[in-house]
Write a structure and sequence with these properties.
Carbamate kinase; 12 strands; 245 residues; two-stranded antiparallel ribbon; 7 helices; alpha/beta; 38% helix
């Protein structure tokens, strides 16, 4: 089985959490599954990078900001690959462009145009866990672009689509999709399953558990996406076509 897993920044905020995610991936790989991990920048790294850039030039160009911000995911991808290696399993970290992600030229809010999957497939055939930096790609001019906040979700769903993955999982700091924020409302209700359109409506109303473009992409390619806790690994919420689930 080919599984694409995405880990958000809070799920990888420190060494212990990176090792936990790495351990989950290694466990699946040792069961015979092929694993592609998509990672966000650790913790509040992106916010910290934006703050530091503003201290240098509060009106820095969008091109340079993309080149700068993409480093956060790249650092996390390399650390995660190192953690996997320390557990005795081969792994390789790939930037967005090494993973073959082509985007349009809209800096700071780019859209994925295509993914050339040959490098990822080659690494998987070698038995490696692939750790891809989320949120980024390369535009037609060869410049680094970013996909907007939450864009690692879209990276994961796009990779699942182009690789024809058997499963796409989004690991986060909540255990699924709720009708409202469970960190604020004690009586929030968790969905076991939810349609693409209902999920998009929740996002329009302020839910931040998934990037809207990732849901649109999942709907277009009929990919079921599971949202689940990175800390428990318990079954979460399946976002998809309810008639086929």
């Amino acid at each position: 089985m080919l599984i694409v897993q995405k880990y958000g920044g809070t799920s990888l905020a420190d060494g212990e959490k990176i090792r936990s995610a790495a351990s989950r991936a290694v466990g699946l790989a040792r069961q015979g599954h092929r694993i592609v991990m998509v990672v966000s920048a650790q913790g509040r790294t992106t916010d910290d990078l934006i703050r530091r850039a503003a201290e240098i030039n509060p009106r820095g160009s969008s091109r340079e900001m993309d080149a700068y911000l993409a480093a956060g995911e790249q650092l996390c991808a390399a650390l995660t690959a190192m953690a996997i290696g320390a557990m005795g399993h081969p792994a390789v970290s790939l930037t967005g462009w090494q993973a073959g992600i082509d985007t349009d030229g809209c800096h700071g809010d780019a859209r994925i145009r295509a993914i050339r999957c040959s490098r990822i497939r080659k690494e998987l055939e070698r038995g490696k866990i692939v750790v891809a930096a989320g949120f980024q790609g390369l535009d037609p001019d060869g410049d680094i672009t970013t996909l907007g906040r939450g864009g690692s979700d879209t990276t994961a769903v796009a990779l699942a689509a182009y690789l024809k993955a058997d499963k796409c999982q989004i690991f986060t700091d909540v255990d699924g999709v709720y009708d409202r924020d469970p960190r604020i409302y004690a009586d929030a209700v968790r969905f076991g399953r939810i349609s693409y359109d209902r999920m998009l409506t929740l996002i329009e109303n302020g839910a931040q558990v998934l990037h809207d473009r990732s849901v649109e992409l999942a709907k277009a390619h009929a990919i079921a996406v599971e949202v689940l806790s990175a800390f428990t690994g318990a079954p979460g919420t399946i976002v998809g076509d309810l008639e086929s689930l």
